Amino acid sequence: xxxxxxxxxxxxxxxxxxxxxxxxxxxxxxxxxxxxxxxxxxxxxxxxxxxxxxxxxxxxxxxxxxxxxxxxxxxxxxxxxxxxxxxxxxxxxxxxxxxxxxxx
Length: 104
Prior knowledge:
This protein is mainly α. 61% of the residues lie in helices and 0% in strands. α1 packs across α2. The radius of gyration is 19 Å and the shape is elongated.
């Protein structure tokens, strides 16, 4: 299997990578970088490509990539003062309200 060849991946893995890439792109990550990150995430979750209906079938994954969130988060905000965190929260709420008014 040459580098970049996705023939060994199941349709589900391909859909998963596409969904992850779309999510990264919506957050402003460039398309090529988003695709690379998406496939890295699929590989971390599933251990690489699997033959459809073959050895990869009915084998659950622990979804290690999905469990990563939250471990690193919070460290930076805990260093900040309560007033700083509160100000950020108020600013975020105002932004959400403004965006909702634009969209609605």
